[in-house]
# Entry
Amino acid sequence: MDEYNDPYQPDQRPIVRDDQLPDDIEGYLPARGRRLKPGTEDRVPDPGSRKAGWITLLLLIPALAFVVFTQQSSVIKATAEAEASAQEIVPSGRADTFGLLSRFTVKFHHLMMDIDENQGATALEDAGYMDAIDDMSVSPHEMLRGAIVAAEVVSEEEAQDRLSYTIIYLSENSEQLEPEYRRAVYEDAHLIANIYDGIELTDEERQRLIDHHGWHGKLALTYGKNNDDPERRDLVGGGGGLLAFLVLFGLIIVVALLGGFGLLITGIILLAMGKLKMRFKPPAVGGSVYLETFAVFVGMFMLLQITTDALVGTLPESVLYGMQWLVVLSIFWPMVRGVSLGRWRRDMGLVAPEGVFKEIWFGLLTYLACVPLYFAAAAVSLVLIAMRSLLFESNEFGETAVEAPMSNPIIELIESSDFVTVAVLGSLMMVWAPLVEECIMRGALFRHFRSRFIFIFSGLFSAVLFGFLHQYDMLMLVPIITLGWAFAFMREWRDSLVGCMTAHALHNSTIFLMIVWLVTLV
# Structure
């Protein structure tokens, strides 16, 4: 089938050059006397029609608003629940920043002590680790846990001083603290102080500390035991693996930033000199099938959200997450509308005219070049969050006496899931997202925008929508939008999604595998 004569192209007339005009050219004149813009003579509309496009928009806008609202509502709800439970004493896991730093600090301290006991005794305290622990102690019960860490890293006396300070803090901020919470923290402080005074706790008291403080409670209860003791070994061991993790992670960041900055400067120079040829050929205005594709994706995603919310608790989490794979069917919508397989692949960018490996290589280079931009965007997000905290999150007392701990939802999800669920999550992050999101956002939606706008606006519009479809705090979307724009540039430059998918897969896989490794180590 000819690529420009697919069945679904109503009211489409051929566009021909001047030397190909027949004697009677009236039927070939642009509608309403409009003149073609220079450089658009060979552009052909995508399949579809303006009418279909308007109908699609009428259906798309409320569906998109529902999905974005649902995504942001879940973030707001999770934040509100965390703040509401801030005065509930629950164990500090690997997902929250305080719990993660506590584990790092204790494990590194004992690794340093094994290497050189004299220098290791004060190495982490001198390096400011305990100051960081103090800065992240946003509630009285975390202050207790900071005292437990201090007993390991500094001394029993330091731990007792911190426990005494916590009790004073409870008294000074009693108006902001619920009586039950204040009493629970006070009682836990005395139990922990008894441990460092050498007083034996009852089984009920020991279980109370474990129930309230988890890893920190177990650490306090094993204080003074040999590090090879089975009850203590896993709590303080593993520093060598963490050191290897940090060294590797640091090397990756340094190489990515330095190499990426060099590639970014080189790319800007080549672009300014006209050495980078943009291969993407925008279609003419008028088609709708790729806007329809985006609408089908959003519609399926909306139905998925409603369905999974209704089925929570009735099906395993692995099945609920795995249902997201059904959304992959949305990328085939153009063929349902009559577009041939060959044209669908070309329009969506599922081609590699200069070879797959070359496109993969350019995808890797472009991703590295955008790494500095990604970190700069992340810094902007952190500044915005800090400003929001200063402006809106204090009460009449000034700073709050109890705050919700900072946590990472991805780490929390992986930490709390079984192996099958983690495997499904990995497939979604490392395979589904690069395949489906690139086909929809850069393959279909970007192509539709590009028929109407220049690259800068088309890339920005598609990147913003790409960001808002993610379940992150609104202010944390800046790095996601930055990545989306970089992926759109790859599409414009190479006219292929292979590089976009490569970069997307590399980014997601690096994050996922590093998190899984980190969770297993701590």
